[in-house]
Amino acid sequence: MAWLGAGIVACSSPTEEAPRDTGSAKDADVKSALARFKRAEVLGVQDDVPYFVRGDLGRVPPVSELRAREAGEDVRGLLNDLAPVFRLRGNDLVFRKQSLDEQGHRHLRFRQHHQGLPVIGGELVVHVDSQGLVYAANGSARGGPTASTDVKVAPEVAAKVAVSGSRAEPAFVDGPAERVFLRPEGEKELHLAWQVRVKGQRDGMPSDDLVYVDAKDGVLLAVHPRIHSARNRRVYSANNGTSLPGTLRRSEAGAPTGDSHVDQNFDRLGDAYNCYKTVFNRDSYDNAGATLISTVHYRSRYVNAYWDGTQLVYGDGDGVNSSELGKDLDVTVHELTHAVTERESDLIFSGESGGLNESISDIFAGICESWTRGWATDADVFKIGEDIWTPGIPGDALRYMSDPTQDGDSLDYYPDYTSGTDVHYSSGISNLVFTLLAKGGTHPRGKTAIHVTAIGVEKAARIFYKANTDLFTPSTSFPQARTATQQAAVQLGYDSNTVDSVTNAWAAVGVGAPASFMEPTPAHETPPNPVPDATLVQIPLSQVLTDPPRHDEESQVEDRFLPDLPILVNGVQYTAEQLRAQDIHLAHYVLDERSAELNVVQGFRTSAELQTYMRSTNQYPSEQPTSLQQALCNQHSVFFEHANYAGASFTVPPGLGLSYVGNTWNDRISSVWGSRCASWTVLGEHINLGGYWLWIGRGWSLNNLRGWGYYTGFWIFRSWHSWNDRVSSVILFW
Ligand SMILES: [Ca+2]
Ligand SMILES: [Ca+2]
Ligand SMILES: [Ca+2]
Ligand SMILES: [Ca+2]
Ligand SMILES: [Zn+2]
Fold first, then answer.
1. Quick one: which ligand is closest to 553's CA?
2. Domains in the chain, start-ordered, CATH in brackets?
3. I need a labelling partner for 421 at 20 to 30 A (CA). Which of 81, 314, 635, 687 fits?
């Protein structure tokens, strides 16, 4: 691991972006910056620079001793040490805002500058607990190479490029062009750019864009829209009734007007306000009681709604594609949430962060609908706009969070994402994450086989709210959002099962690995550490290559537990659910090189089947070393109390075992490093070598036994059980 070093805890859940090469010098500066902290754990890396670090990052006065005018300044001294971790300089970070959450933690946001100019989307968040411990820092601010700092393009030329680049018609430039730095999506280098604000009309609605043009060669780099609309599949050109906000029809103390669009919109605004206030204690979109202004009857037969930066705007619909949009809670919460996002994470409405921004609006539409019905999880909660969309067609919706591709355009799998994907379509990726997290289940089209355990809408809501208010930054990507939501769950004090569900929900859509995985055993020199109240003995193979009768679970039934990976039995692949439905009884479960290659657990009904497999793959175990070289190999397997190789541990050398791990260790093991010297490290379910067996192949490790299971098919009790806290015997063979 590139991030292992003195005083640095290795990344416990490596992401796809974590560098795999060791000993390279390209991250030496980052490592030495990390080494300045007593304890610093890197949770995610992009382009060799961390985007999430937690640990003991320093101390500032507790929140009770803080004076308002010091906002942001109390961590200033500490930033000089922290900034180099992100390849930044403390002086380049400009305070934007801080928020205080209900646990008394402060989250301070700093905007990145470079050579005195703002870096678009670059923001660092510093997290401080109520006692003043700086326990985490994350964000999309990161230093790195700069493509060019020459200005060779005149601002007037940039403005022309910007106007055509915005695709608005008509379009006009608002204000002077400004110099900024921008890192185009998918690129490592910062480009010096002209930022041009272009307003006008596009696709039948007002547009207001920040357009970026390369100052060196005049190339259009990015368009960041500032007006967020519901999706409109058709362009309408009605030309009347566009002045905003129009005539005031009803205010807070006013009586119903008799105009159903006005009155129902008034009620939907109330529902949206109450949802945010009751569930998240948020006072309006700015959390400072801002008046909710909306305009209905916008234009004629207009099939759209949007937030324009100050107010909500709704059309009446055309009666075919949609009915009156202001009557709908989904549309109202969706648009209002754009205003919340703008005040908090400020996710840029372009690229991955744009999909995330759009998704957050859909997610909160689902959350508030669920809340109005006592945290319901029915189908309508996860449909967007179903009440106003296509009045002539029952059951359909504008978007489907639980099966995003049902609308014909949205994505449901991150590997399908490309930088050109429309934000209203890439939103499907995180919409599905939220749905799986809230409701549980698997990918609707079987893109992955990962099962997500439901945590309910309310907890999922709190996680996404915390992520959007305290952790996301303007250019947060989907992989960064995974880390942010995991850490939101941790910061909220949720248990590890909940965090695993977050991890698995992202893994299910192709972002990151599932919570439980097998991986090669790291190089380790652990001194022998025997179990205090048990005796190591040589255990005959015949006592492990057994055919246990099917039997009932040994203790409580674990409701709804299903292992993530499919099970391969005699060349046929089953999901855990199928195996249960068909009542296929297995005695032995194998995780080895081949399992890793095929991404399956291999199941064997009899010890004879297992032995055939072991012979055919040259993995037949032996009670004695079969060569001098083997006999000299002495790496032990290590058994840990907690997942991710944490907590207390004991070791067992090759060739020996414990028919009973003893009272202190019985039903306690949660993760395992398998020895590279042993052909197999075998875990047994029962005391004195009974029950089912889990065979771990040479040199493989399991970070979390919770994800692996065995099936018991006794009478009507057909259930899966996790190996976590279940192991009673362990044996290593040569
Ligand atoms: Ca709905
Ligand atoms: Ca419909
Ligand atoms: Ca345990
Ligand atoms: Ca047991
Ligand atoms: Zn939107």
1. 4
2. 8-141 (no CATH), 148-226 (3.10.450), 260-508 (1.10.390.10), 519-733 (2.60.20.10)
3. 314
- Among all bound ligands, the one having the nearest atom to the CA of 644 is 3
- DSSP conformational letter for 470: I
Q: How far apart are CA 414 and CA 404, in angstroms?
A: 12
Q: Cα 644 from chain centroid?
A: 19
Residue 636 annotated as catalytic: no
Q: How many CB atoms lie under 10 A from the CB of residue 247?
A: 7
Rounded Cα gap, residues 255 and 723, in angstroms: 62
Annotation says 519 is catalytic? no
The residue among 7 and 26 whose pLDDT is bigger is 26
- CA quadruple 274, 278, 279, 285: dihedral positive or negative? positive
CA–CA separation, 701 and 519 (whole Å): 5
Angle at which helices 478-491 and 351-372 cross, to 10°: 40
The two counts, helices (H) then strands (E), for the chain are 14, 34
Question: What's the CA-to-centroid distance between 395 and ligand 2, angstroms?
Answer: 6
Tell how far the Cα of 513 is from the centroid of ligand 2, in angstroms.
Answer: 37
Q: Which ligand is nearest the CA of 334, by number? A: 5
Whether residue 102 is predicted with pLDDT greater than 70 in this model: the reply is yes
Tell me which residues have their CB within 5 A of the ion that is ligand 1: 330, 369, 380, 383
Ordered DSSP codes for 515-541: SS-EEEPPP--PPP---TTS--B---G
Residue 558 has pLDDT above 80, yes or no: no
Pairing relationship of beta strands 146-148 and 190-202 according to DSSP bridges: parallel
